[in-house]
Every structure is written in C-alpha cells, then in structure tokens.
Amino acid sequence: MIKVRNLKKEFIQGQERTEVLKNVDLNVEEGEFVAIMGPSGSGKSTLLQLLGGLDIPTEGDILINQNHLSNMTEKERTIFRRKYIGFIFQNYQLLPTLNVKENIAFPLHADGSLTKEKNQMILELLDAVGLKGLGRKHVNLLSGGQQQRVAIARALVNNPSVLLADEPTGNLDRNKAEEILGLISRFNRESNQTVIMVTHDIFAAGFADRIILFKDGVIDQVISRKEDDYAKYVANFMA
Ligand SMILES: Nc1ncnc2c1ncn2[C@@H]1O[C@H](COP(=O)(O)OP(=O)(O)O)[C@@H](O)[C@H]1O
Ligand SMILES: [Mg+2]
C-alpha cells in the first residue's frame, strides 16, 4: 500500500547542500505497524514529512493507495493528506486556545457547527482515547499524556488509512508512553490502520511488527520484532 522508490531529499541553504535522504526504498503493507529508529539527524522526520505529503522529495516517488505523491500539485497533496493521513507529533501540536473537542474537530474544517454524525464520531473518539467528558476542557489544562490522547483523536478523526507518528512518546514517562502505544497499536489492529512511527525508544519499537534502522539518510537494516535478541541488536546499533 505504501511504496517508496529511490527517494532523495536535499536541503539547500546558501552555498551549502545537505543530502538528508540518499536512496530510500521501502514497502509497507496495509495494516502493518513499522517503527523507524536511528540516530538524531539521520533523516527520520524528513522521511515522515515526505510520506505525509508535507514536503516534496528532490528525486524519487512515493506511492500511497495508488496515489503518486510526486505528480500532485500542492493543493492535491493537501486534499490527499486530509483523506488518507493522520499525524502525531512529539510535542502534540494542539491549538492552545481551543478546547479538546475543537482540537479534535479541527481537521474536519468545522466552524463550530458539526453535523450530528460528526459530533457523535468525536464523542466516540473521546471515549476511545480515554477522555470521555473532557471535550470542553482547554487543552493547555491537560497533562502531557492527555494532550497526546487529544492529538491521537485528532489524527484519527478523518479515519485515515495511514497514521504517521514522529516520536509520539518522546515527552512522556514510561507509564504514559505505554498507554499511548497501547492506543496506537489498538487502532492499528482494530481499524487495520497502517502505522509508521519514528522512535528513539526500543520499548516503543517493540510494539511494531518491523523495525527499520536508519543511518545517514539510508535504510541500514530491517529487523523483525519477532527475532530473538532484537532489543539487544537495536541497542547496539543505536549506541
Ligand atoms: N527544512 C530544513 N532545512 C534545512 N535542513 C533541514 C531541514 N529539515 C531537516 N534538515 C536537516 O536534515 C537532517 C535530518 O533531519 P531530520 O529529518 O529532522 O532528522 P531526524 O528526525 O532523524 O533527527 C538534519 O541535519 C537537519 O538539520
Ligand atoms: Mg526527528
């Protein structure tokens, strides 16, 4: 369902050219949960941005649900993103002046007048992420873990087929991280959502089916969580 071919991305600042992604080839199956790990600055966030159509590659192509991202105009990419992609970030990226429900409704372009159906869906999502009854609360009054739950509900409100998460538990302690990862893997299993998650944490990566080890803009190794010793292996790689 996701095919990445010969992907390259370089940034040019003044005279300097940085090749951030060098030659990335990757296939992800529908419903698969993939973790991407690698040192800081190796290009993980850049890859996620390209996968979500937030930025365009220098070369190469990304195919998602039969859509070639490279052929799209910016406007088409925006529409594509709304239809197929949910994003979750390390720092939640909620709108601080809005309440929980308004934040979740935001991708629906709701101007306050939600249809009955959409309203019902938001209530169900609130329940699913463990925030029942908190819809009218301002998001800046919530704990980090609660804010990330709001962000997950917001990412899911369009029922995207692909969930992209960039270090979603990076700001949370172990217990809160486990709850958030439990939620993400539950949606992955129950809604067959494809999940691509960047993480520094081997514990978080253990929720994925496959772990992609990224280094200097290329995929260095791909390992299965089911392999014995995967944790030791990854720890050595990251060290
Ligand atoms: N918009 C940008 N302009 C210039 N350089 C960038 C930009 N975004 C990322 N980079 C550079 O690309 C490299 C990889 O960044 P990033 O993808 O954020 O890495 P990671 O998420 O693996 O830590 C870094 O050297 C970073 O400085
Ligand atoms: Mg990053």
UniProtKB/TrEMBL annotation:
SUPFAM superfamilies: P-loop containing nucleoside triphosphate hydrolases (SSF52540). SMART domains: AAA (SM00382). Keywords: ATP-binding, Nucleotide-binding, Transport. Residues 2-235 form the ABC transporter domain. It comes from the Bacteria. One of its GO terms (molecular function) is ATP hydrolysis activity. CDD domains: ABC_MJ0796_LolCDE_FtsE (cd03255). The keyword Nucleus does not apply. InterPro entries: AAA+_ATPase (IPR003593), ABC_transporter-like_ATP-bd (IPR003439), ABC_transporter-like_CS (IPR017871), MacB-like_ATP-bd (IPR017911), P-loop_NTPase (IPR027417). GO terms for cellular component: membrane protein complex. Belongs to the ABC transporter superfamily. PANTHER family: ALPHA-D-RIBOSE 1-METHYLPHOSPHONATE 5-TRIPHOSPHATE SYNTHASE SUBUNIT PHNL (PTHR42798:SF7), LIPOPROTEIN-RELEASING SYSTEM ATP-BINDING PROTEIN LOLD (PTHR42798). This is Bacitracin export ATP-binding protein BceA. It comes from Oceanobacillus oncorhynchi. The lineage of its organism: Bacteria, Bacillati, Bacillota, Bacilli, Bacillales.
